[in-house]
Amino acid sequence: EDEQIVAEIMGRRFFPDLIVYKTWEGFHFAGHEIRITEATDCYGAVVWPSALVLCYFLETNSKQCNLVDKNVIEIGAGTGLVSIVASLLGAFVTATDLPELLENLQHNILQNTKQKCRHQPCVKELSWGIDLEKNFPRSSCHFDYIMAADVVYHHPFLDELLLTFDHLCKNDTVILWAMKFRLENENRFVDRFQTLFDLEMVSNFPSLNIALYKAMRKGRMKA
């Protein structure tokens, strides 16, 4: 079953027939052909398999996870694929990442959502753990969903990442997080994450070493 679903997920990706000036990959999600411009010199400007796993979940679980008119923020949006799919499924999306990635992120989102979405998504800078209250004040920012794909890897900002999840998450916010398991140090982040959030594994793909989690603040999952 794992291999069949993984084949279906990876089958959503396609490549240009001809050599083009800018590197891009194509994807089929939410009834649309999505073209993503990439940059191979930066981790954040490449589409990683965890993003495909999350997009596939959003599309195939659109009844249980109805995004229509929901307020969604994606942290570490990278190329924007998850934000684009969430937008095409009816959400109002804020796609965030580091300042050096915003130009390509904005390009991909505009190219794939303009006049196609119920709500035009916005792109905003978010450096994990920095100026959170200034840029995303708790009193006025309420997100129904926080989405993250492959935000845990070999980087020195895991503390800041956890702080960002904590700041953005209200009692009724749902976190959807796709994670590729790599090194033990990074895997321990899951244990730290569970000190603040109840965690439920929604999907697991051993052949990709990727798990998809749903999380809410402690005590809220069962409620």
Give a brief description:
This is MT21E methyltransferase. With 223 residues, the protein is α/β, with parallel strands linked by helices.
Keywords, separated by commas or semicolons:
223 residues, alpha/beta, Rossmann fold, 7 helices, 30% helix, globular
Structure report:
By secondary structure, this protein is α/β, with parallel strands linked by helices. The protein has a single domain, classed as Vaccinia Virus protein VP39 (Rossmann fold). It has helices spanning 2-10, 49-60, 81-88, 102-113, 132-135, 158-168, 184-193; strands at 13-14, 24-29, 32-37, 71-74, 92-97, 122-125, 145-149, 174-180, 197-205, 210-217. The strands form 2 sheets. The protein has a 7-stranded mixed sheet. Strands 1-2-3 form a 3-stranded antiparallel sheet. Helix 2 runs parallel beside helix 3 and helix 3 packs parallel to helix 4. The longest helix has 12 residues, at 49-60. GO terms for molecular function: methyltransferase activity. It comes from Cisticola juncidis.
Q: Give the domain tally.
A: 1
Shape: globular
CATH topology: Rossmann fold
Tell me the name of the CATH class.
Answer: Alpha Beta
- Largest sheet, strands/sense/barrel: 7 strands, mixed
**Strand order in space, largest sheet:** 6-5-4-7-8-10-9
The computed structural class is alpha/beta
Please provide the count of β strands.
10
Number of helices: 7
Average residue pLDDT: 91
Output the helix-strand order.
HEEEHEHEHEHEHEHEE
Low-confidence stretches: none
Strand content: 25-35%
Q: What is the first-to-last residue Cα distance?
A: 31 Å
Q: Helicity, in percent?
A: 25-40%
State Rg.
Answer: 16 Å
CATH superfamily: Vaccinia Virus protein VP39
Question: From the coordinates shown, what is the CATH architecture?
Answer: 3-Layer(aba) Sandwich
